[in-house]
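In response to reviewer comment 3 from the previous cycle, which asked for concrete evidence that the modeling workflow produces usable outputs, we include below a single protein chain processed end to end. The sequence was submitted unchanged, and the resulting structure tokens are shown without manual editing.
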Amino acid sequence: MQACQLQFLEESQVSSSEEARQALQKKYLKQILKELYADLKNVIDPAEKKTAGGLINQFRQELELAFSSDTAVSKVRQSEVFCDPTAIKMQFVRGHIHPLIHFTQKMEEVFINMGFSIVYGPEIEKEENNFEKLNIPLHHPARDMQDTFYIKGSDKLLRSHTSSVQIRTMENAKPPLKIISVGNVYRVDDIDAQHTPMFYQTEGLVVDKGIRFSDLKGVLIQFIKTVFGENIQVRFRPSYYPYTEPSAAVDMSCPICATQGCRTCKQAGWITILGAGMVHPNVFLSVGYDPKEVSGFAFGLGVNRLAMIYYQMAEIRGFYENDISLWASV
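The workflow returned the following structure tokens.
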């Protein structure tokens, strides 16, 4: 009897799961006790039989108590995870992608469908990649215009445009190239309805033999009409950028008023949305390309500004002020 008790104690300590406890209960209450009572019938001495019977009954009571306490603990555990099916279901609002990211992905999809690849680069950039190799030397007035965030004690800065990614790409790959570079850029601007010191920019670059200005026009017209609609008109005006020659400012007819004049286009009927041009020969030379062998075009646009027009938002700050109701409306 003592051996059975010790065996039960050992087995009960290692039986942690509900299935193991049920198997242990079946073994002792239905099998071992039955065998003990059967052996009791073979005891001849009445006094010895009475003593043995008392020990067996005591063991049975101990077993019943042990298994009943296990059942109680199991019920308590079940009650702790009980789920009331009649309870009122909580309403969870499903999140959505940020409007600025959504518009960026929409733009990327248009360019990918035209055969462009997306490339990325560091936001902390070498000064020469941001300026010199883009035909913007130290004395050039464009450096004063950009008001760049310089990192003290180094030749690095927070990139003021993603054109630096194009430099890195050309230094590590040979033509033909057909890429867009997407990411954050930084300029020292006061925060107002139209400006923030950080904004999204997308720039494109195509380099190959025989690339012409008409190729640039075709890509940009296709992009603008795909994003804003086939009814949008596009015009190119002469402009100046150090890294392209010839250069052009690209306007589109206002999608809100259709050139009639409104608040969005400042009553002009047209909105300037990007700059573009043929890659300057000096840029090719800075990355080891021969401008006599290859030609190319580049363009750049502020994603935030285009997204404002697309979503008809009054201020660029709306993208950063966590106004959930505004985001839901667009």
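The CA atoms of residues 120 and 181 lie 6 Å apart. We consider this sufficient to address the reviewer's concern, and the full set will be provided in the supplementary archive.
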